[in-house]
Design goal:
Helix 3 links the parallel strand 3 and strand 4. The protein has a five-stranded parallel β-sheet with strand order 2-1-3-4-5, with helices on both faces. By secondary structure, the protein is an alpha/beta fold. Helix content is 50%, strand content 13%. It has two domains: 139 residues, 3-Layer(aba) Sandwich (Rossmann fold); 55 residues, Arc Repressor Mutant, subunit A (Orthogonal Bundle), CATH 1.10.10. The N and C termini lie far apart (37 Å). The protein is elongated.
Amino acid sequence: MTTVALVDDHAILRDPLARVIDEFEGYKVTCLAGNGKELVEHIGLCGVPDIVILDLNMPVMDGYETAIWLQKNHPRAIVMMLSAYDSEMIMVRLLRTGVKGFMRKDISPAELKKALAEVREKGFYYWGDSSNRLANLFREGVNELPDGDKTLLTEKEIKLIQLCCSDMTYKAIAQAMQLSPRAVDGMREALFEKLDLKNRVGLAMYAMRQGLVPL
């Protein structure tokens, strides 16, 4: 029996999905959690499930942070990500954390069953609309990607973008990132040029399109 954990803060989506998975022969949902912190607590009490399906955007401890924790503490667990977004940048970022599969939230039961089977048998699953390049990355487990790709951002750049989507001043952002205001100004201007954007509003719109912040 393959055990599955579902981690999503929206019970209205999570619970029906659990019932669908429980109907698949050979699969059993053994953990339902609303965020990564709840999953960590469950694992401490009940052990590690074979497959962990994470929502990307969650409070307290989101899917990205949870994937990093699982990779560090339980690398044998197969981690899959569930999200309304399917941008290449997000998929590459998740690949670097050891995530083996990516599923959209509107996935059909038949495709979900296929995804679970493929990730168990082949070690990866990627959404059908993904590029061949991403498919190869999932197969090979590549962590180093070519420089110069405008869609690939560093963790520090992503953090800056997320903070820019708040109502924080640039001075407050600098303090939060433990950088000087001048360093933040330089990073911001570099991001504008890298992403062909002109202002903070454009940066926020980009972040929402790419799923870096919830809509």
